[in-house]
Structure formats: C-alpha cells, structure tokens
Amino acid sequence: MTSILLPESETEIEAIVHEAAQSRSPLAIHGGGTRPIGKPVHADRTLSTKLLTGITLYEPSELVISARAGTPLTEIQQTLAANRQRLPFEPIDYRHLLGNHGIPTIGGVTASNSSGPRRIHSGAARDSLIGVRATTGRGETIKSGGRVMKNVTGYDFVKLLAGSWGTLAVLTEVTYKLLPEAETELTLLLTGLSAERAVEAMTSALGTPFEVTGAAHLPARDGMPTRTALRLEGFDASVTYRTDRLDQVLKPFGAFETIAAEASRVLWKSIRDVEALESPHDAAIWRISVRPTDGPTVGKQLVEKLSSRVLYDWAGGLIWASGPSEGDGGAAIVRSAVAAVGGHAMLVRGSPELRATVPVFEPETSGVAAMSRLIKSAFDPAGVLNPGRM
Amino acid sequence: MSAIEIPKPDPRILARRNEIIAGLAALLPPTSLITEEDERRAYETDALTAYRRVPLAVVLPETTEQVSKVLAFLNQQGVKVVARGAGTSLAGGAIPSEDAVVLGVSKTSRILDVDTANRTIRVEAGVTNLGVSGAVAHLGFFYAPDPSSQLACTIAGNIGMNSGGAHCLKYGVTTNNVLGVKIVLIDGTIVEIGGAQMDAPGYDLLGLIVGSEGQLGVVTEATLRILPLAEGARPMLMGFQSAEDAGACVAAIIASGIIPVAIEYMDRPAIQVCEAFAHAGYPLDVEALLIIEVEGSEAEIEDLIGRITTIAADYNPSGLRVSQSEAESAAIWKGRKSAFGAMGRLADYICMDGTIPTGQLSAVLTGIAEICAGYGLRVSNIFHAGDGNLHPLVLFNANDPVEQHKAERCGEDILKLCVDLGGCLTGEHGVGIEKRDLMTYQFNTIDLDQQMRVKSALDPQWLLNPHKVFPLEGRPV
Questions:
Q1: Can you give the pTM of this predicted structure?
Q2: Best B198, B264, B447, B449 residue to mutate vs chain A (most A CBs within 10 Å)
Q3: Which of A67, A313, B23, B351 is the most exposed place for a label (fewest CB within 10 A)?
Q4: Which residue of A has its CA nearest to B230?
C-alpha cells in the first residue's frame, strides 16, 4: 500500500524530500496523476502536488501567468479565456487516451512538456515556459528564469526541468508567457489523400508565409476517407486572404472544404487528444517524432507490419500509432522503423507489464546517456525522485 | 564594484607553455595553431574592450575530431579553454586569461544541409548568423534570431549566449530556433543532441546547452529551424512626449492581440544621435520614439497599421509615419541597428542588458535617469520594448579611470534596479565576466550552487570558460 503525501507548501515539500534523501526512500511524484507515462515507479510513498494550488500572478497586459504546480489546468485556461488569452502550446489532455479520471495540473503539463498541434507554429510547452521554482532531490528549492520574456541569466534550468518527468526536481511553481486568442480560426480539409500526398500538402503549406498553426492527417475510419487538416488563425481579413492564397498552393491535392469556429475547435481538440486512437482500449500507443517527410515511411511500415492505426500531426513529424497489446507492443518494429530515418519513439500507453519490460523512452546514445546520468546525479544524488521513470 | 577581476594566470601552466604548444601542434595542421604574440593579441578581448588578456595560444580547428583531440589533451593537461565565435560578446564572454587556450570556430563555416520541406538547416558552428539567412534567402526562408551584430557573430556564439534580437518578439530567441547540436565535452567525447525533428527524447540537454556560455562543452555543428519569409514587412514610427505614454501604448498594442515582429524604443538622446548618423527621418521633437514593424501581405500590413494607429491615438502620438518604400524601411532600421556604433562616435559607453516586466517601463526609465544623474553620467536608452529588454547606454570617457569606475558602478545599480522591479540582469547578452559578480543579487546561494553542480558534473576541473557566469567567491573547491 503506497501512502500519499499531500504537502501544501514548498517548505513541506522540502522537508519530505530531504527526509526521503536521508533515508534513501524513493518518492513517486504526482500532479493530477493523468499522465502515467514512463516505467512504473516503485516507491512506497507518493508525493502529490495537488494541494499546492493557486494562480500567483496574472498580468494580462504583459501576457504572463504564474501558478503553483498543483493548480488545475482548467482553472488556468478559464482564467485566461476570460481575458481572451491562452497558453500558446495547446497542451494535450491524456485522460481519454490513457483512460483515467484525474485532474490535469499545470505542473504535470510542464513536467511532461505536453504540447499539441500548435507546436509547429508557437513552440512546445518548454518554449513558452519562462520561469520555474522546484525542489531538487536534495530538498532544496531553486528558482530559474523568472517572469520576464527574455532572460539569459545563468543556466537555463527552465528548459531542463520541462519534460524531466519529476526525476530531477519537484516543480512547485511555473510561469508561462501567453498569446492572445485568435479572432478567427478556420480549417481547410482535404479528403482521401494517402499519407505521402498528405505530408506533401502539409509541408508545402508550411513552406508558405501564411502561418499555418496546425497540420494533421487523420486515418480513414468507419467508411470515411482520410482527412488532412490545415488550420489558420488570426484576424478575420487575414484568415480570408490566407485561405485564398493556400487555395493555389493546395490545387494539386484536390479541392478542400472549410470548417470554422466551433467545428474547427472540436476537430483540433480531437487531434490534440489523439481521439482517433482511443479504441481498442488495450492497444499499445506509440508517440513517434521524426522529420515530417520521413513520417509516411515510418507510418507505412507500422500499418503493414503491425496493422497500426496512424494519426499524423505536426505536418507528419509527430506520429501517433497503435500497436498490439500483447508481446512487445510492437517495440521492435517501431524502433527499427524510426532508427532507419532518425528520430525517437515513446510508448505512451501499455500495460504496466509492457512498460516494465520494454524501454518506454527511446534508448539514448552513450554520450547522451552519460550526460543525463551526470545531470540526474547533480540534482538528485540519492536517486529518490521518480526513480526509474525515465 | 572595483574593476572586474580576471584571476592571475597559473604560473605552473605558463611554465609549461612550450610543452602545451608542442602537444597542440601534434594534433592540428600548422595553420590551425597560433603562437606568435602579435597574432595572439587579436584574441585578447571581445566587444567588452576595457578588459583584455593575451591567451597562451589560439587554436582554430577545422573539424569536430580536431576539437575533440584538443579538448581531450587540454583536459588531461589541466589547461583552461575559452571557446570563441566572432568575439562580439558585450559581456566579456570570450575574454581569455593568460593561462588559457582560445578555441576559435573561424575555420568551420560550411552549410552542411538545407531542407526546406522540413524547414531545417544544418551548419557548422562558425557560420555567421546572417550567413544562415543568406544561405536560404533565395529559397524564400530565413533564420529568425537577429542580434545587432548579425553580420559578424557566429551560430557558435549565438548558441553560447542564447542570443536574441529585435525580431524575437514574434519568433523567439536562439533556444526556440535550435533543434540539434553536435557538442564536444571537455574530455573529448562527441555527443549528438537532438536532431532535425521537432523534439528530442530524454532530458532537454539542448535547452541546457543553449545559453551556457561555453562552460559545458564546445558546439561544432547545429541544426536550426528556418522559417518562410513574410510576404512583406513595414516599419512605422511613432513619437511620444513621455516614456509613460510610449510604454502604455506598447502594452495596449500587445493586449489587443497584435504581436508585431518588433517594437523598438529610443529616448531623446538616442534619437538625436541615430538621426544624425542614419538620416532615417526620425522625429526630433519627441521624448520617446517607437519603431513598430508588422508583416504580411499588403492588405494585412495596411490592416495591422490601421489597428495600431487607432490604439496609439489614446496616447498622444506625434510624428506618426509609415514607411512608404523599401529604401525608407532600410533607413529606419539602419538608424536602429547602428545605434550602438553611432553612440560610440560620441563617447565611450557601456551597454547594459537588463529585462523588466513591460508594465514597469516608465518606472525603470525614471529610476535609470535618477541613478545616472547621481553619478553625473549621461545615459541613452535604446531597447526592445515589446519584451522589456533594456539597453541603457551609460556614456563615459574611457581615458579617465575614475569615470570608467563610476560608469561600471552606475551600470551595476541599473541592473539591480531591473532585478528589484521583477526582472533580470541580462536578457540576451549573457553574464560573461561583466555581470558575474552581480549574480548573487538575482540568485541565492542555493540557486547558484545548483547551477555550479551542473558545471562541475560536466567539467569537473572547471576548464571551460571558467572565470565567467559565477562569482569567483563561493565556487566549489
């Protein structure tokens, strides 16, 4: 039986981690617990930040927000929406895909560097993150970055801690820069394209100055053909103009229809949250990152060899693919397909047994692994924070 | 602040100079090793010219393998290494010590691969910033970070300092535009981090390396993001009778949902000097000038300029002017980009680089004016208003040691003010030696110790650019 620790302040977190380091007793680190990704952590105790809540700073005119790590993501999104602002990177909500019912926190979003379709235009979570406070494995709270837009003072631990899955430090407070919500959004939909043609269409569109903010290719399902979606966002007149210009670029790929407003938002939420791959619920799910033009090569092999259902985001550079629930979950085939073109694959969904036996993250080169070990040891010498997760 | 200390050279290293040079000679082609004093002197300082030390030797490797051999050798010999791009650091990031070897990247400047479909370019680290954009301009692409020194400065230096520029308001700084690097660690290990895909697995080592001021390794190649050139771009000028009005106008524009590619600010002294230099048509009867640039098609530009003009009307603008031609746009930017050079013709100056929350713009300008008046020094403010990155130029006479000392103390007080107002010591120039001893003002001992632990982990002997970033006192034994 694991016990759950629910600190309400940095001071309490420091005491818990310090004691854990002294007694060499590992801690599992949780926010809302909605991203159970990575190797299962064996720890008798879980430190949850879910009581460490509250927006600590919000300056709409400066496009900046700070919140304690356990603050629910929805609270932040609602606060921003009231001022027609948003987090630029469109964080994925993993709950449907991973079948759980927790409350996503801003700390969890940060620790997993969760980014969505707009990553191709506005960057990942790590690109919008401008400040952190975090308690290291020594039980000491450090700060890095701050609340200003440009900051090169000292080493950039902001980036290092984003996506470190709670293995270097327990995030206690994060600061993000924001973007205004777009006045208009419009999605151009091409239908029936193969993955190769879809990626050609998407990379052509991204090679224009028309600032496409989403480019995804959805698999055929239920008798419907494949769909290739390109999103434009901005001022009304600008979106109209850019749609006309993209019409010329996309001519070789057939006619497109457009969907606007709520219908467009629903589509991109479904892409962001990988709804196309939700069922069957026991399938393994892989998240694969390659160069966009290599996407179809990898996707095709997975379809042929694993009967995968494949969703392409980031113009083909991000592949979500299903794999068998049994055996290695498709790991050998996925990893060899990725190795052939360069990139990496992460097992996002799989049974605990599968995640315990198959490397969840892409195996690292010896040089990267050595650097990572040195850094882990500099932050968490006793190895008590989420041991084994990465 | 007394003058910035550069530690005395280690006599044991100086005594072994011939031996060290012989060792380097065995690893490099003769043209890649500089030993004569008059030639070494070219590497004694960077753009922080008040400080200079002639290095022990200079190496200019041609390949990553040569970098690897040189670092492995110097690590084994316990010799310090200062990596150097083009030497344009305003923070003294490339200033060596007499017992250090300078490792320059000037012989590595090839474009290795251009891939417009995937919007990436692979370059050797000695390529200049402008050289990257130049290599893809004919394909309709560019590289976004644009420091004022972009004609000379290298990608190696940009990565070291996480350089920004006037246009990063929309496009981000170096760290947002680098996808992968090849780096050589102090023991000679060559590591590929990231690649051409949009993210990398594992820890964000790339994020750590960018901005680490050459203290964790030497970058020899990089994969960068390139972006399609906008259809058009046009700057507009707006004058204001007070810094408050200009600052409030900037905040209102951003709050309206418009992110211009650049919003640059100049105060009255800067306007006078830059206008005399560039004849850009800046209004001379205003206290503050904003240069705002927007991008897009002709119709989009018109639309954005219309929106900005409407917003600005609430803040008493004067001399509002939209560029009518390419030549006029070029002149407007020439005035801004040559501002530092133009000021340099008037007097010596030190250029500060603090960042503040944009809501504190008028507070910081008032504070800066008071601080400078207190020292009896003149100041001119030129900065990136959209993101709060200030560049106050404190003017002084470099031939007067007393005045130089005053100017440095004045700059120090300005940076402390930036921190007090919720900002930071440096937005894009880096810490170098210049702000090293102020780090304790922004960070506490726990923060700095953790940063130094990472330094020690990757460079146990502290040989890579060791006298920078961290105060000399309080370092790990």
A1: 0.97
A2: B198
A3: B23
A4: A209
Same domain, A3 and A140: yes
Q: Which of B182, B296, B169 is nearest to B229 (CA)?
A: B296
Residues 2-21 of B with CB under 8 A from A: none
pLDDT band at B257 (very low <50, low <70, confident <90, very high): confident
List the domains of chain B with CATH numbers.
Answer: 1-229+443-477 (3.30.465.10), 233-339 (3.30.70.2190), 347-436 (3.30.70.2740)
Residue B1 has pLDDT above 60, yes or no: no
Average pLDDT on B388-400 reads 94
CB contacts, 8 Å: A344 with chain B: 197, 200-201
Q: What angle do CA B182, B183, B187 make, to 5 degrees?
A: 140
Cα B378 from Cα B406, distance rounded (Å): 12
* Least CB–CB distance from A375: residue in B176, B359, B457: B457
Is the ipTM here above 0.90? yes
- How, if at all, do strands B379-384 and B262-267 pair? antiparallel
Is there a single domain that holds both residue A1 and residue A138?
Answer: yes
**What's the pLDDT score for residue B342?**
86
Name the band, by pLDDT with cuts 50, 70 and 90, for residue A314: very high
Q: In angstroms, rounded to a whole number, what is the distance separating the alpha carbons of residues B84 and B47?
A: 12
B283-317: per-residue pLDDT in tens? 999 999 999 999 999 999 999 999 999 999 999 99
- Do A195 and A227 lie in a common domain? yes
* Contact residues on chain B for A291, CB-CB shorter than 8 A: 115, 118, 120, 196-197
The answer to whether residue A1 scores a pLDDT higher than 60 is no
The partner residue sitting opposite B199, judged by closest CB among A124, A181, A374, is A124
**What's the confidence (pLDDT) of residue B256?**
87
- Same domain? For A172 and A189 the reply is no
Residues in A 112-151 with any Cβ partner in B closer than 8 A? 113, 115, 119-120, 123-124, 126-127, 136, 140-144, 146-151
Nearest-CA distance A292 → chain B (Å): 6
Q: What is the CATH number of the domain that holds A62?
A: 3.30.465.10
Q: Which residue intervals of B347-424 are DSSP H helices?
A: 361-375, 401-420
Reduce the DSSP state of residue B100 to 3 states and report it. Answer: strand
Domain coverage including residue A226: 184-272
